[in-house]
Amino acid sequence: METTRQEKIARLLMKEMGEIFLVYAREHQGILISVSEVRITPDLSQARVFLSIFPGDKAQDMLKQIQVDTKKIRFMLGSRVRHQLRIIPELIFQIDGTLDYLENIDQLLKQ
């Protein structure tokens, strides 16, 4: 159960991270990255960012590259939200598995 403040900050981070990943994906041709969800801890120190990466076969490689560039991404986020947040949360990136889960259910229903 998230507080109202957590929800507001999560929405702000989701919007800004989406814009950051638009620019980031341009550097890596042929890959589409979208932020599907952001969950923030109650103390606002960590943000878990769930990413949908298309095409799916390059998702793990792209996630590793994003994890290498986490400091750069956090700096870009900090420069965008410096007037709204005092402390920029630590970013933890994960692949969003809901699309794969939905595909699996759809395949099972077709059988």
In short:
The protein is α+β, with helices and mostly antiparallel strands and 111 residues long. 52% of the residues lie in helices and 22% in strands. It has helices at 4-27, 59-68, 70-80, 98-110; strands at residues 32-40, 46-54, 90-95.
Care to describe what's here?
This protein has 111 residues and is α+β, with helices and mostly antiparallel strands. It has a single domain (4-110), classed as 2-Layer Sandwich (GMP Synthetase, Chain A, domain 3), CATH 3.30.300. The chain is built from four helices and three strands. Strands 1-2-3 form a three-stranded mixed sheet. Strand 1 (32-40) and strand 2 form a beta hairpin.
Index terms:
111 residues, alpha+beta, 4 helices
How many domains would you count in the coordinates? 1
**What is the makeup of the main sheet?**
3 strands, mixed
CATH architecture tag: 2-Layer Sandwich
Q: What is the CATH T-level topology?
A: GMP Synthetase, Chain A, domain 3
Strand content: 15-25%
Q: Order of helices and strands, N to C?
A: HEEHHEH
Helical coverage, percent range: 40-55%
How far the N terminus sits from the C terminus, by CA atoms, comes to 37 Å
Q: Which runs of at least 5 residues are low in confidence (pLDDT < 50)?
A: none
- CATH superfamily caption: K homology (KH) domain
Order of strands, widest sheet: 1-2-3
Average per-residue pLDDT, rounded, comes to 89
CATH class: Alpha Beta
